[in-house]
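Cross-check.
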Amino acid sequence: MDHPQGTVVLLDAGDTGVVRALVEVVPSAVCPRCAAGKGCGAGILGAGSGTRRVEVPVPAGMALAIGDRVAVSLMPENLLAAASIAYGLPLAGAVLGAMAGLYMGAGDLLAAVTASMGLAGGILAARLRLRRGACLQRFVPVIHARVPATDAGRR
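Predicted model, tokenized:
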């Protein structure tokens, strides 16, 4: 996946002293595989909105101004971990629910019902896990680099 590029639209120093930037990213320009319909599906969430704004911390020592083009990224291991939580827990819940229903021996209908209950439990577990403070800090995109002025026209 390519690093999505965006434009800094707001800078805020905040109370903590950490400078945060609001970056406007065009989802369709994020990844050529996603644009071709062969990606991981992450772009679906921003589809239809035209642009998406993400709040990211500015690395220490990087001076930015409103209007600067930047590349935003999420560490690959963090992306894999987030996908494992978001997709893996519901899938595991559905499989375990179906197995429990079949183990009870009441037939396919009970297996489908318990699979649905397991899926709902997995979704709830994933949501709770991703809302924890440690996850929120770990799965936040960061500014990877400033895009040179010669590349500002390319996406």
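The chain has two domains: 1-74+140-155, 75-139. Residues 69 and 148 are 8 Å apart (CA to CA). Passed to J.P. for a second look.
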